[in-house]
Specification:
It contains 6 helices and no strands. It has 209 residues and is mostly helical. The longest helix is centred in the C-terminal third of the chain and has 63 residues, at 146-208.
Length: 209
């Protein structure tokens, strides 16, 4: 296993540790350590992609594991925040629902022979998710603090970005599907043209005789 893939796997293993820190232990210590683990996991998300491209170590395994690790991290941290009564459940449902909806679209696109590239908006969404979770972890039990207020504002930003980016992915998906249908029809028409020409020639010969 190369270094980029090892970093991706380490992010997956950090997820249960993050959940344990958030949901057990003393409040004063778990917040700080959970924040440290979250930042470490988010850092591996940047490093694995950077190193894979720089070292020319982009692999099929890495392409498979990276989005899985991201989904696990984001889902785990926001579900934990709901359990801690820091984040509203309905907002987290939108955030996580978007992740799985886009994953499903990409899977369908892959089996159909085309790919949906990650959008810049999606990358901004990931950064805002980590920042939001970090602020809420540190300030979640102190509603009057600037950290908590910043986290709640970012939570709205995350929800809006989740919805907008999901719509963007759906539009790209249907655009690709529509283009695929048009290309298939063009190929079918090309096959029909020689047949029609041969049919007309035979008809002309029959009429002349």
């Amino acid at each position: 296993m190369n270094l980029p893939n090892a970093l991706t796997v380490s992010r997956i293993f950090l997820v249960p540790l993050l959940v344990v820190l958030l949901l057990t232990g003393r409040v004063t210590t778990r917040e700080t350590w959970a924040f440290v683990v979250l930042i470490a996991a988010a850092a591996t998300d940047y490093l694995d992609g950077y190193l894979a491209r720089k070292r020319f170590q982009v692999t099929t395994l890495g392409k498979l594991l990276d989005p899985i690790a991201d989904k696990l991290l984001i889902s785990a941290v926001f579900i934990s925040l709901v359990e801690m009564r820091i984040a509203p459940a309905w907002m987290v449902v939108i955030i996580i629902g978007r992740e799985f909806a886009v994953t499903g679209l990409r899977s369908i696109a892959s089996t159909s022979g085309f790919a949906i590239a990650a959008s810049r908006l999606g990358k901004y969404k990931m950064v805002s998710q980590v920042a939001c979770a970090g602020f809420l972890i540190l300030g979640g039990h102190y509603p009057g603090t600037l950290l908590y207020k910043a986290g709640r504002i970012l939570l709205w930003v995350v929800v809006i970005l989740a919805i907008v980016s999901m719509v963007q992915y759906f539009r790209r998906f249907w655009s690709q599907v529509d283009e695929g249908i048009k290309n298939r029809r063009r190929r079918e028409n090309r096959r029909r043209i020689p047949f029609l020409k041969r049919y007309r020639r035979k008809s002309d010969v029959t009429i002349n005789t």
